[in-house]
Amino acid sequence: MSQPIPNFYAVIPAGGVGSRLWPLSRADAPKFLHDLTGSGHSLLRDTWDRLEPLTGPDRIAVVTGRAHRAAVEEQLPDIADLNVFLESEPRDSAAAIGLAAAILHRREPDVIIGSFAADHVIRGTRVFEFAVRDAVEVAREGYVCTIGIAPSEPAVGFGYIKRGSELIVDGARDASLVERFVEKPDLETAKRYVADRDYLWNAGMFISRADVLLAEIEASNPSLHAGLIALAEAWDDRDLRGPAVDRIWPTLPKIAIDYVVAEPAAERGRLAVVPGHFDWDDVGDFASLAKLNSHGRKNDLAILGENARILSDAASGIVVSHTNRVISLIGVKDIVVVDTPDALLVTTSEHAQRVKGVVDALKLTGRSDVL
Amino acid sequence: MSQPIPNFYAVIPAGGVGSRLWPLSRADAPKFLHDLTGSGHSLLRDTWDRLEPLTGPDRIAVVTGRAHRAAVEEQLPDIADLNVFLESEPRDSAAAIGLAAAILHRREPDVIIGSFAADHVIRGTRVFEFAVRDAVEVAREGYVCTIGIAPSEPAVGFGYIKRGSELIVDGARDASLVERFVEKPDLETAKRYVADRDYLWNAGMFISRADVLLAEIEASNPSLHAGLIALAEAWDDRDLRGPAVDRIWPTLPKIAIDYVVAEPAAERGRLAVVPGHFDWDDVGDFASLAKLNSHGRKNDLAILGENARILSDAASGIVVSHTNRVISLIGVKDIVVVDTPDALLVTTSEHAQRVKGVVDALKLTGRSDVL
């Protein structure tokens, strides 16, 4: 049914470990490689499947660490070699997305790229497609365009985008300029935002002409831009790529694309937004994972794990079983149990945000073997 | 310092699995084989060490299942062969203690036996010794004598003994007749009991002349008595014991000694009690185990397991670690986590009593492999 969008190329940065999902997520088994929805597929694979109708299989690039190359190629058997961009070490999202923009722009000067995280969950694929198609039309006009998610509840765990004046763009039904970004609000503020239709969740999706994106990077961080251009010039030469990556990549500033592109562009009236009326979650912690898998039934116990052997007596929350042990839960409410061969986590939804602190403590105490 | 008590023989029934301590206690690793106090010794061994000054090493008998023989002998290297009484299957406490009484009476007609559970925790060994010495003097007079624990708090998990009129016995400082037994009370009643010094905890310790005990059994359950006598007659004959056990033991009634001896004797004014002013706990469930190991500090996390690798962030309760996994607990209060190679339990002190239900469910669903 759906046709690929002309000039469009999808970029999937697949980098973050997902520390707040430890011990499920690990350095060698990051969040994007897990099936967190019981779909039978990893989040990365689901992301690919969602994008492929919009691009075709030859126009999706993945930016990932060298260590994850084999796992990524196993998840995405259709990916072409020239669409796998390997980082020698993590340098955050501006470098990752900027690298893809620079390489693709050199190969194809009028390319429009859209970057979509490898480890988010989206339900409502057709609605997602509409939003991307609209965003690409806005991007054609020279804007950096983001997709802001229409909030389904007053979430305090996400940042928000405040819509400004309307943009009239051919082929885009509901585009606006972004007035400003808002940090994670408190509950009262979040309730106001949801009541006011002009606030959308910031899902970190950016659609832009590659030349426009690179110009934004050049304007706000010239040395990052110079490094990316030098990398792109060497990239498609078998002999030059390796040495260029080794020389340049580790010197690039570690910074999020929000600060290098989105916020400066918003200030100069060059950032647009189209609303996304689909279900979206960044699955930032186990509370979010529990909610996602209990389908809104508050007293349910969500179970993840193909071979889970669970005995539950009046328990609710989530249990992730990556061993074949019998797990018995009695009377524990909103519990989070993550059972892996070398590490066990027991907490509650309320304290799920503090899992990152455990990971930090394990690093500090020299127990990185379980990270 | 202390001399063995003349005519005295200690009997340790080591039978119960301790289902409410699953998955720590198992059919093949019952409660009495575990170190539940961090002493470095099993409860069985601690029981032996407590009794040995009162009897000498040659006068402590253990009644246990055939399956536990090797483990018991490993725990008690000093035990003589003729002091290990093996049951072919569990037949409850009247049969177990009655068997010991019948055998020992046949060997030594004026023996006084005291039975002490293999899986209780006692602190205050000298005070315990005083109580046993007093009880033996009362038993010499032909009473069945129990040791009632002076309550340290209004416990609702134990039965109580109501003291009746005082008994004047040479060598016993504070003996009374038992007026009656009281089932586990509610909290208000328990508070009254503790205020009234005439209520003591029923710890299931019985001290009696073997002939008196056997007469009590004969009076209330003649067929049990007949079976025990027949077993005792065959016991010390190498050729006869095995066939007698196989023939008689499975036919004995499964009944607790409380119903066969203690309650009938109390009704006829033949049951005495001496108070025990020592710390005692039957470690009936994980709530009790947590309390025992947190030494009254309510916000502590008690940790059992030699190689435990625990990361706790604002957690309280108890964690039992029988694997070498890293266990991370965040913000969980009064939690009970029991981590074993093939089974994991997560509950709270409040729900600790319901662990037995899980064991029943595992039996019903054919997962006895983890019991």
From TrEMBL, chains A, B:
Stretches assigned to the Nucleotidyl transferase domain: 10-295
Domain of life from the UniProt record: Bacteria
InterPro entries named among the record's database cross-references: GMPP_N, ManC/GMP-like_b-helix, Mannose-6P_isomerase_type2, NTP_transferase_dom, Nucleotide-diphossugar_trans
Residues in MannoseP isomerase/GMP-like beta-helix domain copies: 316-362
Gene3D superfamilies with a match to the protein in the record: Spore Coat Polysaccharide Biosynthesis Protein SpsA, Chain A (3.90.550.10)
Pfam families registered for this protein in UniProt: ManC_GMP_beta-helix, NTP_transferase
Protein name (Swiss-Prot/TrEMBL): Sugar phosphate nucleotidyltransferase
